[in-house]
Amino acid sequence: MVTYKSDLSNVDWDEMKTTLNKDAFDNGRTPQQLQVSFQNSYATCIAYIDNRIVGTARVLSDGICNAYIVDVWTFTPYRRQGIASKMITLLMEKLPGQHVSLFTDDALEFYKKQGFTERETCMEKVVGRWLVNHL
Ligand SMILES: CC(C)(COP(=O)(O)OP(=O)(O)OC[C@H]1O[C@@H](n2cnc3c(N)ncnc32)[C@H](O)[C@@H]1OP(=O)(O)O)[C@@H](O)C(=O)NCCC(=O)NCCS
Questions:
Q1: Do the Cβ atoms of 53 and 75 come closer than 8 Å?
Q2: Helix-strand-coil percent breakdown of the chain, rounded to 5?
Q3: 43 Cα: distance to centroid of ligand 1 (angstroms)
Q4: pLDDT surpassing 90 at residue 8
Q5: DSSP β-bridge partners for residue 57
Q6: Alpha carbon of 30 to ligand 1 centroid (Å)
Q7: Which residue, 36, 61, 110, 113, is the most exposed by fewest CB within 10 angstroms?
Q8: Pocket test for ligand 1, best of 60, 79, 118 (most atoms within 8 A of CB)
């Protein structure tokens, strides 16, 4: 059975890092950086099976008009069982009235199924060096 939690108090950040790394979805954050980025999010969702982390999703938001979904991931052995869809649904329930955006390279079909539409424009910039910050 899959359990979905928004509470971050008992998250094993080392386990999250290890599983992301095993699944080739590690973007380089340390366990501490993962913790801070989740804790500083507007809303989060972590999926568990047998107390092991099998999915993540989080959203940055101003609480009024603009939100940005990031870190959407389901551990490979558990894909195509509706886990990411459920995580997105749970996050979106916390974003009424807001414009929600995201970046994706490979998951267009997944997001289209969640009701997102594709836009041509995107601009980006890393300030300084990626992940070189206060932590
Ligand atoms: C994209 C991802 C999060 C989907 O997670 P998931 O838990 O398997 O998604 P769901 O089971 O909720 O999929 C719901 C629907 O989305 C679509 N979908 C999901 N993965 C898909 C894929 N690889 N190709 C095409 N359609 C896909 C399907 O329509 C699916 O419904 P179906 O299984 O009944 O056909 C997962 O494949 C993943 O973690 N990928 C690597 C990380 C990533 O790319 N994240 C997005 C970054 S922005």
A1: yes
A2: 30, 25, 45
A3: 20
A4: yes
A5: 45
A6: 25
A7: 113
A8: 79
Looking at residue 111, what is its pLDDT? 98
- Find the largest Cα–Cα distance for the chain: 43
Mean pLDDT of 49-67: 98
CATH 3.90.850.10 fits 2-113, yes or no: no
Q: How many residues does the chain have?
A: 135
Q: Which residue puts its alpha carbon closest to atom 33 of ligand 1?
A: 80
88 CB under 6 A from ligand 1? no
Closest by CA position to 135, among listed 9, 12, 31: 31
pLDDT at 135: 78
In angstroms, the CA 97 to CA 89 distance is 14
pLDDT in tens, 76-105: 999 999 999 999 999 999 999 999 999 999
Q: Rounded mean pLDDT of the chain?
A: 97
pTM: 0.96
